[in-house]
Amino acid sequence: MIDTLGFFAILALYMARIYANQRKSSLALRQRKDFLLTQLKIAPDSLRASVVERFAPCGKAGCHCHQGGPKHGPYYFLTQCLAVGKINKFQLKTLAQQKAAKAGVNHYRQLLEQLEELSQINAELLRRGEALADE
Ligand SMILES: [Zn+2]
After folding, report:
1. Domain segments of the chain: what residues?
2. What is the 57 CA–ligand 1 centroid distance (Å)?
3. How far is the C-alpha of 94 from the C-alpha of 91, rounded, in Å?
4. Pairwise CA distance, residues 35 & 101, whole Å
5. Residue 84 pLDDT class (50, 70, 90 cuts)
6. How far apart are CA 132 and CA 20, in angstroms?
7. Tell me, what's the pLDDT at 16?
8. Which string of DSSP letters, residue by residue, matches the chain?
9. Measured in angstroms, how far is the CA atom of residue 45 from the centroid of ligand 1?
10. Ligand 1 mean position to 74 CA, how many Å?
C-alpha cells in the first residue's frame, strides 16, 4: 500500500511572520520581550515535521479504486526533511500516533514563532543601539 503512493516531496519553506516592531517604543518592545521570555518553554513532544494525508489505490485489481472510484484512505504520514533530498517518512498507523504527531508539530511551530518574534525584537533593539540583555 505504501509503495503505491509513490514519491512525494515535501517542500518545507519556513516563512517568518514579520512583526511591526519599528513602530513600537523601546519600552513596549522590552515588555513584549519579557513576556515572550516567560512564555518560552520547550514542550517535551516538540516535533519538527509535517503530517500529510494521502489517499491511495489498493492492491486488488478488481477494486473500485482502479476503475475511477474513490481511493482508499486517508492514510497519515509523518515527513521530516533532514537535509536536501533526505526525507524521513513513515506512516502514522494509529489514531494515537496521528494525534501525538499533530500535537508535537504544533508545539514545535509555536516555539519557533515565539523565538522568531524574540529575534526580530532583538534585531530592532540592536538597530536602535540598545542593549539586548540585562547586564
Ligand atoms: Zn481498492
Report:
1. 2-127
2. 5
3. 9
4. 28
5. confident
6. 18
7. 76
8. -HHHH---------PPPPP-GGGS-HHHHHHHHHHHHHH----TT----EEEEEEE--S-TTSGGGTTSPPEEEEEEEEEEEETTEEEEEE--SHHHHHHHHHHHHHHHHHHHHHHHHHHHHHHHHHTT--SS--
9. 35
10. 13
Enumerate the β-bridge partners of residue 87. 81
Tens-place pLDDT, residues 35-82: 999 999 999 999 999 999 999 999 998 999 999 999 999 999 999 989
Q: Which pLDDT value is given to residue 51?
A: 95
The CA 77 to ligand 1 mean position distance, Å, reads 19
Q: Enter the C-alpha cell of residue 80.
A: 521530516
Q: Each residue of 94-131: pLDDT tens digit?
A: 999 999 999 999 999 999 999 999 999 999 999 999 99
